[in-house]
Amino acid sequence: MTAPALTTPGVFRTCDVTGRKIHRQAELLVRANAVTAVVALLIGAIAALLLVLTRWQAVHLLPADWYYRLLGVHGMNMLIFFIIYFEMAVLWFAATVLLNARPAAPRFGWFNFGLMMVGTLMVQWAQWTGRADVLFTSYVPLRAHPVYYLGIILFAVGALFVSLQFFATLTMAKRERTYEGSMPLVVYGALTAAIIAVITLVHGALIYVPTLLWSLGIIETVDPQVYRMVWWALGHSSQQINMAAQVAIWYMLGALTVGAVVINEKVSRTAFVLYILFISMASAHHLLVDPGFGPAWKIANTSYFMYMAVLASMIHGFTIPAGMELGMRLRGFTQGFFGWLRNAPWGDPGFSSLVLSVSIFGFVGGITGVTIGTEQINIVVHNTLRVPGHFHSTVVSGTAMAFMGVTYYLLPLIFRRRVAFWGMAKLQPYVFSLGVLLLAMGMTFAGSFGVPRRHWDISFSNAPYSVEFTPAVDLMLAIMGIGGILAVTGALMFIAIAVKSVFFGERIDAITRGTAMVGVPQGLTHPPVHPVDADAKNEALHAPARGIMGPVPGTIVLVAIFFIAFVTYYFTNWKLLSFLWKIG
Amino acid sequence: MLTKVHTGLESVPGVWWKPAHKSEKVWVGIAFVWCMILFAMMPLWHWKGGQNPSGIRRKVDPKAFYERTVAFAAQHKIGEDRGVPIVAPPPGSHIYLTAMAYQWYPILQLEKGKEYVLHLSALDVNHGFSLYPLNVNFQVIPGYDYGLRVTPTASGDFRIICNEFCGIGHHTMVGRVIVVDEQGDVVADNAGASLEQEGRP
Ligand code: HEM
Ligand SMILES: [Cu+2]
Fold first, then answer.
1. Would you call B93 an interface residue with chain A, using a CB distance cutoff of 8 Å?
2. HEC secondary structure over B148-170
3. Buried-most residue among A169, A553, B14, B44 (CB within 10 A)?
4. Considering only alpha carbons, which residue of chain A is nearest residue B104?
5. Strands B116-122 and B94-100
């Protein structure tokens, strides 16, 4: 096939840092999606502040109707709009920039962006005017205005088409030989995300189309249990899109900030394949204490068929730090176990975001997730505040943090602007992560005392029978509240930086290597290149004489600590469960 | 020969299917075994453990279930609290609890150490059964009867919090479960709720 676009002047530009060819339309699509994502983040963050100040019972800010309304607004804007628009940007970026390729049918790309926008506006309208007070899960027979369901369908169809365009772009790039050999691992990760997105969005259609018809009165009923099952095949599988996208970004940030290497392509790629294979089972761990399913179904599905997706995550949990460690060692930071970490660029917001994202996701989100998704342990967790405690430490301090981190690199690379408020940018990942960590901890511990999620008033002042939680709960909710305020501050810092940079930022015409520049992360001014003898050094580090610790002793210590924490937390929860009433 | 040193941003020329280092193999091995343990714990707990969400599960017409609950409540009623009947069914029997916006019906009075089959369902929308302060949680779905064998192991005055959003009055939806000990004594009412005991032996 001939590629006229390749020869048209002005369609591509060459990046002066990476030397990659960047297609103008692709670049614009990345920008439009990323900017929309940030707007959604802003709406979600404002709602978050009001919510957290309501759940903090001592403050109890909002009236009941606005608490529930904004809870829906927060869920949709954060989990759906912010995350998915950003993922659309990642797909466009990975398929074109990383492969030096042109986007397949950019006009169709704009059409899909428009479709998603229309859908988004419909949902916002329905939610803000109180026509969809059903929370983002909209469990039937709670009923919202048809426009709400239609909006979600349009949004999902747009996203589905973009995923298909991603495949088309990859195919074209392959055919036009824009790269040699196998596609980069980061693109492979994005491909995983796109495949899962297709599976997920098909489930979305399966559930929202009947629900729309039901809300219009065309069909009589939608079974509430079937709804929950199919809805979560959308709702949770989409977390696996996030997971794959986030892991791809981890590999990318590792490469950009410290020259992280891929320690073994086979291992990393196999782990991505495991995600794809076992993904559609993800809905089960929301249904563990539901009446519609038996134990065999629950066990097989909640474990993603014997925890093969957990295995995949544990593999990435090793290969990501290991790649960073090896990259640093090859660049000469060889002292002791952790010389590579001590000498890492902690002031680079791309790097600190990466480390915070990986560690909080792994140590808090991952461990709690596997534990509370255990069939029986879920009895003491389901619908308590422990659940939002868990997912704020995955999708927020993991995925959202990773997305923010990569933005610090996209601003100079794609938007060609300096990162504004550079001093604040260096601080932002720490503020946001610490905030979310406290928020998640507060929620988790309050939830262990039975404090419900999605609940306006745990003082139960209007309830017929009084309920008094132990005073420890007040403390936990205060921690949640303070953490939440800090997290929202971190999010607003990010938004301020992003908006200022994109719309009013100082243009960068050229990045000079070797001199530090305000507003340009060190990975771009001082690219972490490997020495010419890197291959020889690598062989030496892999020499059998170095034994099991091999090339990455520091990582081995880290994963050992992780493993001990995991085992301890897991069995402690079984022990606590055994104290309950007998139930069966 | 290892693959040429490269990052995740670079395409990989040639064959990348190369053996992993021993440390990686060992980690993948440990992770795999751990995953099998995670998996085995669930069937094991069904076999040896005391807390499982299995139960008897069947589909049911929501109205029929509610009527069944009302008949059951009338049959074993021993008192009333805020207009909700207090019901003391015999140990070993099937007992019924209907969730509806924004009420749990009826109030159950159980005996410590005795087994009951607790049937949960909803009349209108999804609700969440959350037993306070024990923190035992089940999803309650209209059209589905969840029959759980329960044995209270401690006496007390318990609450049922609704922990699934069911509408604007969701946060007022609190119910009550009373567990009496071997002497038949109701423990002190920790909520100050008025408990009329006229029907009690
Ligand atoms: C910026 C800091 C954030 C704060 C302070 C925050 C706080 C909260 C609070 C207080 C709740 C309500 C919990 C309840 O009452 O049940 C909540 C729910 C939720 N949050 Fe966040 N959040 C933040 C960011 C995010 C982000 C970035 C995402 C997704 C990417 C997210 C996803 C959700 C979801 C899905 C819910 C559940 C909504 C529901 O139950 O219907 N949050 N959050
Ligand atoms: Cu409720």
1. no
2. EEEECCCCEEEEEEECCCCCCCH
3. A169
4. A464
5. parallel
- Comparing A33-37, A230-234, A574-578, B151-155, the range with the smallest average pLDDT is A230-234
| One-character DSSP codes across A141-181 | TS---HHHHHHHHHHHHHHHHHHHHHHHHHHHHHHTT-S-S
pLDDT in tens, A46-82: 999 999 999 999 999 999 999 999 999 999 999 999 9
Nearest ligand for residue B168 CA = 2
Tokens at residue B201, please? 């032996």
* Cα Dmax for chain A: 75
A173/A161 Cα distance (integer angstroms): 18
Q: Is B117 near chain A, with CB under 8 Å?
A: no
* Cα dihedral B142, B148, B151, B154 sign: negative
| Number of Cα atoms under 13 Å in the Cβ half of residue B148 | 28
Burial pattern A257-286, b for ≥16 Cβ within 10 A else e, equals bbbbbbbbbbbbbbbbebbbebbbbbbbbb
According to DSSP, the residues that pair with B139 across neighbouring strands are B128
Cβ contact, residue pair A262, B6, below 8 Å: yes
Sign, Cα dihedral of A323, A326, A330, A333: positive
Compare CB distances from B12 to A223, A265, A577 and report the shortest one's residue. Answer: A265
Probe site for chain A from B38, B48, B61 (most A CB atoms < 10 A): B38
On the question of pLDDT at A445 being above 50, the answer is yes
Give the closest residue (by CA) to ligand 1 atom 20.
Answer: A75
Which tens digits make up the pLDDT trace of B77-90? 999 998 999 999 99
In terms of DSSP H, where are the helices of A259-379?
265-277, 295-302, 304-330, 339-342, 349-360, 367-372
Reported pTM: 0.93
Query: Taking a contact as any Cβ pair under 8 Å apart, which residues of chain A between 350 and 379 contact chain B?
Result: 370, 374-376, 378-379
Residue A576: what pLDDT? 92
Query: What is the DSSP track for B54-68?
Result: --EEEE--HHHHHHH
Is pLDDT of A398 > 80? yes
Compute the distance between CA of residue B22 and CA of residue A544 in angstroms, rounded to an integer. Answer: 9
Q: Which of A185, A384, A449 sits opposite B137 (nearest CB)?
A: A384
**Is B168 touching A (CB cutoff 8 A)?**
yes
Q: Please provide residue B80's backbone torsions phi and psi, each rounded to the nearest 5 degrees.
A: -150, 145
A65–B168 CB contact, under 8 Å: yes
Write the CATH number of the domain with boundaries A21-577.
Answer: 1.20.210.10
Q: Is the peptide bond before B102 cis (omega within 30 degrees of 0)?
A: yes
ipTM for the predicted complex: 0.90
Q: How far is B134 from chain A (nearest CA, A)?
A: 7
**B53, A379: Cβ pair inside 8 Å?**
yes
Angle at B136 between CA B130 and CA B142, to 5 degrees: 50
Domains, chain B, ranges and CATH? 1-52 (no CATH), 56-180 (2.60.40.420)
- Domain extents in chain A: 21-577
